[in-house]
Write a structure and sequence with these properties.
This protein has one helix at 166-170, and strands at 5-6, 11-12, 17-18, 23-24, 29-30, 35-36, 41-42, 47-48, 53-54, 59-60, 65-66, 70-72, 77-78, 83-84, 104-106, 111-112, 117-118, 123-124, 129-130, 135-136, 144-148, 151-157, 163-164. The protein is mainly β. It has a single domain, classed as Hexapeptide repeat proteins (UDP N-Acetylglucosamine Acyltransferase, domain 1). Strand 21 and strand 22 form a beta hairpin. The N and C termini lie far apart (40 Å). The model has no long low-confidence stretch (mean pLDDT 92).
């Protein structure tokens, strides 16, 4: 008996680590060297590139590609059709190798809304929220809500998801979650 669930249409390459309780749904492909934590959910038509690292309790909705060079910390949420890139200046006629990939890190508790595009080489801060359809071109500060194209800070958010003002954020206390 397997320690994780894999739909019969999913493809898992050799040399992949998958944590206990993880669910891998229809037409998902996990490439060699990938490491996926415990209790993750990878929706339909998800692609995980070579050597990608995904933490525990990560939710990746349908039609998301997480390319080599991208890492997702614990408790990250990627909405449907989120787009990650890993090359800044792609050209069809010039072969790139993994030395050319820019690193992108999504820190613990961050949420990326549906149809957002994450340009490579950025860091999305702890508990940040990227609004649906946004284009991230620079680092996202922890606890910030960023929206737009290019995305800019709109507001601030607690780890529990309650919107805050910048002044309240600095108090380090949330009446909602008591943290």
């Amino acid at each position: 008996m397997s320690k994780f669930f894999k739909h019969e249409t999913a493809i898992i390459d050799n040399n992949v680590t998958i944590g206990l309780g993880t669910k891998i749904w229809h037409w998902t492909h996990i490439s060699k060297g990938a490491k996926i934590g415990k209790n993750c959910v990878l929706g339909q038509n998800v692609f995980i590139g070579n050597n990608v690292k995904i933490g525990n309790n990560v939710k990746i909705q349908n039609n998301v590609s997480v390319y080599e060079g991208v890492s997702l910390d614990n408790n990250v949420f990627c909405g449907p059709s989120v787009v990650f890139t890993n090359v800044k200046y792609p050209r069809s006629g010039f072969t790139k190798n993994n030395k050319d990939y820019f690193k992108t890190r999504v820190k613990e508790g961050a949420t990326i809304g549906a149809n957002s595009t994450i340009i490579c080489g950025v860091e999305i801060g702890k508990n940040a929220l990227v609004g649906a359809g946004s284009v991230i071109t620079t680092n996202v500060k922890k606890h910030s809500i960023q929206i737009g194209n290019p995305a800019r800070i709109y507001a601030w958010i607690c780890a529990c998801g309650k919107r805050k003002t910048k002044k309240k954020l600095k108090s380090n206390y949330c009446k909602n979650c008591k943290k």
